[in-house]
Amino acid sequence: MFMHKVTTLNQFIVERQAEIPGATGEFSRLLHHVGIAAKKVHREVNKAGLVDILGRVGTVNVQGENQQKLDVFANATFMDELRASGECCGVATEENEGIVVFDEELCREGKYVACMDPLDGSSNIDANVSVGTIFSIYRRKSAVGECPVESDFLQVGTEQIAAGYVIYGSSTMLVYTAGRGVNGFTLDTSIGEFCLSHPLVQTPARGRIYSINEGNYVNFPVGVKKYIKYCQEIDEEGGRPYTSRYIGSLVADYHRNMLHGGLFLYPETNAYPEGKLRLVYECNPVAFIAEQSGGMATDGTRRVLELVPGSLHQRVPFYAGSREMTRKLMEFLEFFNNI
Ligand code: AHG
Ligand code: MN
Ligand code: MN
Predict the structure, then answer these.
(1) How many independent structural domains does the chain possess?
(2) Residue of 95, 105, 130, 259 with fewest CB within 10 Å of its CB?
């Protein structure tokens, strides 16, 4: 039986490293440990209905949001693996107010810092709806050998060395970019390896899907309301060119739109006047993926990757996906938000 060539994540990382002159393997080791953490979280997510890992811990995180047991498990798992890599000197995470410094001797030598949303879409866990992990890797600016400082984690998005997400869905996938395209790896549980399944993903320039929580419609900026109505209009042939799809997990909504073509929108609302999604560990990593796969990501006026973070948990309005759809939205925003 002919076995098609399987490229595991680790093989892929080593092959990419060989292409980079002077690469020392440190980043490869870091990414390898991200893969291990993803497999550990996959295992818990997949049995979440069977063991006491569902539901709330009874604590709230820095966002004032009830922490789900899986939030806490995923946070601890990714932190442990990033620390174990010896290449990361600290982490900024949704689940902790301040940065977490890995001050073991080995970690202080780490050249990298990580920002992460350990479990994205956690309100969906109990309903068995897809959730994810989002991560972003920067080279530290502070001196190697010392503890990292907060400014290491507040770098502009264009400084990202790598970014990606894990989607725990009908299958578990790890999708990442290191600045040379976006590649997707599907977990083959029979061998416990992430295997290359989506090489060099390209988002269609336009698609049929728009994703937004229309429950907030009355509070949306006028330009967003007009764009939604534009999507709902009947075209010349009497067809409906667009369809609305919204899961409520950024990773799941974005991933579907990246593959099929579409636009994800999370504008400012009454509940979240700055927008709901966090710049450092949700918008910047997804924006890096979006641009590396031929798409776009904006806060409504500026390129997300050029926003300078002011604080770790800063929220921004977020629009990301197919570039023609993003450009059309921008036309509406510019016209209606300036009248
Ligand atoms: P998290 O679970 O990490 O707090 O993220 C939830 C986010 C994001 O995943 C999703 O797009 C958005 O919240 C959904 O918000 P609404 O429920 O307000 O639509
Ligand atoms: Mn999230
Ligand atoms: Mn989260």
Answers:
(1) 2
(2) 105
